[in-house]
Amino acid sequence: MDTKTGKIGVTTDNIFPVIKKFLYSDHEIFLRELVSNAIDATQKLRTLSSFGEYKGTLDDMNVRVAIDKEAGTLTVSDHGIGMTAEDIDKYINQIAFSGAEEFLAKYKDRAENIIGHFGLGFYSAFMVAKKVEIRTLSYKEGSQAMMWSCDGSPEYTMEPIEKKERGTNIVLYIDDDNKDFLEQARIDTLLKKYCRFLPVPVISGKQQEWKDGKMTDTDRDNVINNTEPAWTKKPADLTDEDYRAFYRELYPGQDDPLFWIHLNVDYPFTLTGILYFPKIKSNIDINRQGRIQLYCNQVFVTDSVEGVVPEFMMLMQGVIDSPDIPLNVSRSYLQSDSAVKKISGYITRKVADRLDEIFTQNRTDFEAKWDDIKIFIEYGMLTDEKFADRAKKFVLLKDTEGKFFTLDEYKALIEPTQTDKDGTTVYLYTTDPTAQYNYINAATERGYDVLVMDGQLDSHFIGLLEQKVEKSRFVRVDSDVIDNLISKEDRKVADLTPLQRNELTTIFRSQIPAVDKAEFLVSFEALSATAAPVMITQNEYMRRMKDMAAMQPGMAFYAEMPDSYNLIVNTEHRLIKEIRDAAAEALDAKVQPVETDIEAANAEITRLRDAAKAAGDKTDAETDKQLADLEKKVSELRDAENKTISEFAATQPRVKQLIDLALLGNGLLRGSDLSSFISRSVELM
């Protein structure tokens, strides 16, 4: 045929500026599109050959990407089915969408999925090229080789050429703004990103070796891709080492994975892939883009898989391949598409089933790896209700003896001994078995069992378990004295007179050293005579809020609050009784008259305020002055009383020693206070 010119079949002249403008941020995907087309052409020829519709040889079934820096061209070549002039007219000259004006109006502000969705894969070449040529020869006998050429305007030229080899060469004349695509390293990087697992060998340049002090090309072709990645094979054909080798191919330099799951489903959608549980060494980072790679027929789509896989699986690594997810999709598309939601649900179910299978078939191995995989399972249960329901069968609890239990097993273990007077089963736990050893020891001596909950997500997970396990309560082992952790009967009230309570409160409070970001509340408990004289506990609710605040920016209010501790004084202990009696002998005669004066002043303040309230909250200047004088008097009397008691407390080294012992047991005694404690201990000996 003669040279033919014409206009590409669109109803507007500005389709190319639209492609360049709207897809510019993703302009590197032109290479993925052109190589994918070349792969399709190659695979189609193989299919035709298998049906007997193509009788020729299947030689050199590769895709080549070649750079000519002098000519300024990048060429993608294949030996696939090629095209006739009629094919070019059908597939190139007629862009497959109706109403370009409607298209432009619809996608004026967002064009994330123009390519592919509208059959514009080939036209992505114009994002980086000022001119594109197609040189092609169809597999059909007697075909005429053709060249199609276009400079980025709707006008094109098509003419016969000489071409001996079957297939298609796409030649891009790279424009001045995209000269980086004429660098071999840049092209190889993109090919490894998008094409590393395509089913046809992709050749780019030559293999290199070190020679004469520099890297030099050899005569061996550089094949970019692995044409038969592990996920395309049947699980029965793969060994454990095959799975590990593929993991190392995906993530060089990382430790071997803990487990893996081979996905393989063909109804109601097609999905294959392999997901790995990696070892996580550092603090959890939810934004783990790049861990799971999404492919469409072995063509890389994205590593931003939010919406395709459940949130908790962002901690996993591996590959998902599904032709039901188009190559060019926006994040909003992934999150709203019904097929994608079904895929997400399937993956959740498959992961849960696989974990249950591993647990059932080899519980010993599952337990050995529990500390590494618990973060996946806990995160899954916290963020996915359906996974949480399935995981209840195999989620494990570990106690301080290193024994593992399912939820049902552990409940059966502790119900007889750790159910309080209200019928609630109390789960005791520690977040630091070493630092909280004394509290753990006190609990185990009572026959209680203590769980280890020291994981990154355990503070949140505890709250979930309290919802899932009926009539349960989780209490950290150092949050109260042992007699109160699991209340079997009503508490015994500390037998102190108001004067004794006031004196002991000030004696102990005045001797507590300053601890950074910590506040202490002195309280009294009538514990057993053999229990410790002074103990420090931390309020369960406030501590739990602070733990969660450390991981949730929205709870910064709790994170900024000081740690709240209870300094509990055991009024039944011999040493406390001795301190109480010594205080009574030294202080009662001095403190009682002051207390009487304070009570009298407070009574007068109450009388004056009651009178004012009866008069409609109206007071005159004289009454206001009386109230101010009385309040000042009370404050001065209280200061004087506290000073008297504090001076006495300073003469009682046993008070300071008992407090420091309690602080030391909780890791709260530091610096000069610790040094003073050591010196005082020697003196008291």
Q: What is the CATH class name of the largest domain? A: Alpha Beta
Mean pLDDT: 85
Percentage of residues in DSSP E strands: 15-25%
Q: Which spans have pLDDT < 50 for at least 5 consecutive residues?
A: 96-104, 107-119, 284-289
Supply the number of structural domains.
4
**How are the strands ordered across the major sheet?**
1-6-5-4-7-3-2-8-9
Quaternary structure annotation: single chain
Largest sheet: 9 strands, mixed
* Global geometry: elongated
Number of helices: 22
* Fold-level CATH name of the largest domain: Heat Shock Protein 90
In CATH terms, what is the architecture of the largest domain? 2-Layer Sandwich
Q: Cα-atom Rg, whole angstroms?
A: 39 Å
Helical/strand content category:
alpha+beta
Indicate the topology:
Layout: E1 4-7, H1 15-22, H2 29-50, E2 63-68, E3 73-78, H3 85-91, H4 100-106, E4 129-137, E5 146-150, E6 155-160, E7 167-174, H5 184-194, E8 202-211, E9 214-223, H6 240-250, E10 259-265, E11 271-277, E12 292-296, E13 299-302, E14 317-321, H7 331-336, H8 338-361, H9 363-368, H10 370-383, H11 385-391, E15 396-398, E16 404-406, H12 407-414, E17 425-430, H13 437-445, E18 450-452, H14 458-468, E19 472-476, H15 482-485, H16 498-509, E20 518-525, E21 534-538, H17 540-549, H18 556-560, E22 563-570, H19 574-614, H20 621-650, H21 653-665, H22 671-684
Parallel strand pairs: 2-8, 12-14, 17-18, 17-19, 20-22
Antiparallel strand pairs: 1-6, 2-3, 3-7, 4-5, 4-7, 5-6, 8-9, 10-11, 11-14, 12-13, 15-16, 21-22
Helix pairs in contact: 8-11, 10-11, 10-14, 16-19, 16-20, 19-20, 21-22
